[in-house]
Write a structure and sequence with these properties.
alpha/beta; Aspartate Aminotransferase, domain 1; Aspartate Aminotransferase, domain 2; 7-stranded mixed beta sheet; 3-stranded antiparallel beta sheet; globular
Length: 349
């Protein structure tokens, strides 16, 4: 996997270890986008074909998520899709979230003053579910430090108390195999581990829609979109497509080949590769006298080492700083040599 992908699909000019911020575009995706931009400039716009490509992207994501395509809605950003869930809750409903979880998941609930927003440490989240909790919302993998949530325990606790679950899989889907159908709702921004352009996100819902109201429904949310362009939409889509918004063509045209690459390679194989590199880094940075956040994640955070990011950037090693942590993220285009270069620069910093 490593040699094939590094040679055929990716040619970064830096040591890029920052997928937790944004993934790299595969060569096939860049080619599709260049051609689409040229078609737009030349007046060769085939909207019917482009919408068909969007449906292919929806189907590919559905297979990666382990659900049927009729449970997948397309969008442009996680926060907008979370807002549909937030808007569906009755006044006074309690929402439980993890301390310090990503704001795009948490803040839409905070914007409703009539909801009760409660937090708990990630490790204690299952035990924090109680009678009266309406929804538990949590990221599968924490953005700030890469910790992986015990989703099975969260889902079991929620079921025991009659609560629904919402899981943000943005930092997981693509390398951490998950059955999205095990939860009431999931959201996923595709521009990180799924290697799509920014502007692509997916929402999965129960077969009955999960009580969501499609308040943002436009013509594309109609059962027959091309007959729903004017006036009130006569019939909303019978599937999760009723929660779609009009797609940004370029991001979704790029998403399809990127999702194809992830599907062809397989999240299981990608995850094994990513975890091995992450473990190599944890071991190496510990030998340098630092204490990385423990775990078995593709994202490695090292508290107190954020100031080293500048020196790493000057050396052409791209990482990020989140919550004071130096954060490195390892994906299918990375190699053991990338890890060793990161460690060598840190040793000199």
């Amino acid at each position: 996997m490593e040699n094939y992908l590094s040679g055929a699909e990716f040619a970064p000019r830096t040591t890029y270890l920052n997928t937790a911020s944004h993934g790299l575009l595969p060569a096939r995706t860049a080619d599709v986008l260049r051609a689409a931009v040229q078609d737009m400039a030349d007046g060769r716009i085939d909207m019917m074909d482009w919408f068909a490509t969007i449906e292919e992207a929806r189907a590919r994501f559905a297979r990666l998520a382990g659900v049927s395509p009729d449970r997948v809605a397309t969008g442009s950003a996680v926060a907008a899709q979370v807002s549909l869930v937030a808007g569906s809750l009755p006044p006074g409903a309690e929402v439980l979230v993890a301390d310090g979880d990503f704001s795009s998941l948490v803040n839409p609930f905070a914007m409703r003053a009539d909801l009760k927003l409660r937090t708990a440490p990630l490790e204690e989240l299952p035990d924090a579910v109680r009678p009266g909790t309406a929804l538990v919302a949590v990221s599968a993998v924490q953005s700030a430090d890469g910790r992986v949530a015990d989703l099975a325990a969260v889902a079991a606790a929620a079921r025991a108390h009659g609560a629904r679950t919402l899981v943000d899989t943005t930092q997981a889907t693509g390398w951490l195999p998950l059955d999205h159908g095990a939860f009431d709702y999931t959201v996923c921004g595709a521009y990180k581990w799924l290697l799509a352009p920014r502007g692509v996100s997916f929402l999965t819902v129960p077969e009955d829609g999960g009580g969501l109201v499609p308040v943002q429904a436009g013509w594309v949310a109609g059962e027959r979109p091309w007959e729903s362009c004017y006036g009130t939409v006569g019939e909303l889509a019978r599937s999760a497509r009723r929660f779609d918004i009009a797609p940004a063509f370029l991001p979704y045209l790029g998403a399809e080949p990127s999702l194809a690459l992830i599907e062809e390679t397989g999240p299981e194989a990608i995850g094994a590769h990513n975890r091995a590199l992450a473990d190599r880094f944890r071991t190496g940075v510990a030998e340098l006298g630092h204490r990385p956040v423990p775990g078995d994640s593709a994202i490695v955070a090292v508290p107190g080492l954020g100031e080293a990011a500048a020196a790493l950037g000057e050396a052409g090693v791209e990482v990020s700083v989140r919550a004071g942590n130096l954060r490195a993220a390892f994906h299918l285009y990375n190699t053991a040599e990338d890890v060793d270069r990161l460690l060598a620069v840190l040793a000199r910093a």
